[in-house]
Amino acid sequence: MPSRRLSARDRARRELGQNFLVDRAAARRLVRLLDLTGPTPVVELGAGAGAVTRELAGHPVTAVEIDPHWADVLRVRCPWARVVRGDVLRFAFPRTEHVVVGNLPYSQTTAIVRRLLAEPSWTRAALLVQFDVARKRADGGSMLNAQWAPWYEFRLCGRVRAQAFRPVPSVDGGLLAVRRRARPLVPWSELGAYQAMVEAVFTGRGRGLRAVLRNLRRPLPSGVPADALPKDLTPEDWARLHR
Ligand SMILES: C[S@@+](CC[C@H](N)C(=O)[O-])C[C@H]1O[C@@H](n2cnc3c(N)ncnc32)[C@H](O)[C@@H]1O
């Protein structure tokens, strides 16, 4: 029955964060952040109705979409793309070099970003997320930022007004560029130990960084003021603290 089908679609729209881009210029701005020059493989996260996918015509694209309805639509609209019907959180990312793009479902941004950062083979990502989330990532200072700072640089690249999406969300979007460092500040093989250290510092007992580090029996990195807080440390400070 049409009315039941409509309500199922409405439910999917809400649960899966289906705020589709209707502003072509915004989709182009997102794709331009990838600096695509040659035939670099692209993985698109949450491809939906293909607003971003169609701006990638001519590139080898793998478009991941969880909703079977939109995955089927995509196969017709963007026949050059390899469409994978599945959950980004379980997707097997390529083991060879690639780039990543996605207008992410707002409700799953953190989970998807965490999943993405744990993948070793992509070099650049262009993400459209809530503006405040993009700004927070780019400003640094959070535990999540510190845990990934030796490997990635985050940059806020602009705002996308809420009216660029349908349905119109309650907040604007933000363009976030993530670049893997050519020379990581900490070896990838030490990721687990490094992240445990960052968590211990952020959640450790003591007032100020010096006291927290004293409790953890670690020295304050040279050049860091005694009254600094964990959020004040630069990626280089964190790397020295790890060493
Ligand atoms: C904000 S929409 C973006 C759609 C399209 N890329 C665009 O820009 O118009 C997010 C898309 O991600 C899909 N999605 C939500 N959760 C997902 C997940 N866990 N894995 C894969 N796709 C997901 C939704 O169905 C939706 O199509």
Automatic annotation (TrEMBL):
Query: Known CDD domains for this protein?
Result: AdoMet_MTases
At the top level, the lineage of the source is: Bacteria
Q: Where does S-adenosyl-L-methionine bind?
A: 19, 21, 46, 65, 87, 103
Q: Which UniProt keywords apply?
A: Methyltransferase, RNA-binding, S-adenosyl-L-methionine, Transferase
Q: Does the keyword RNA-binding apply?
A: yes
Any keyword RNA-binding? yes
List, for all copies, the residue spans of the domain called Ribosomal RNA adenine methylase transferase N-terminal. 26-182
Q: Which PROSITE patterns match?
A: SAM_RNA_A_N6_MT
Q: Which Pfam families match?
A: RrnaAD
InterPro entries in UniProt = KsgA/Erm, rRNA_Ade_methylase_Trfase_N, SAM-dependent_MTases_sf
Its family remark reads: Belongs to the class I-like SAM-binding methyltransferase superfamily. rRNA adenine N(6)-methyltransferase family.
Which NCBIfam families does the entry mention?
Erm23S_rRNA_broad
What is this protein's record name? Ribosomal RNA adenine methylase transferase N-terminal domain-containing protein
State the organism named in the record. Saccharopolyspora taberi
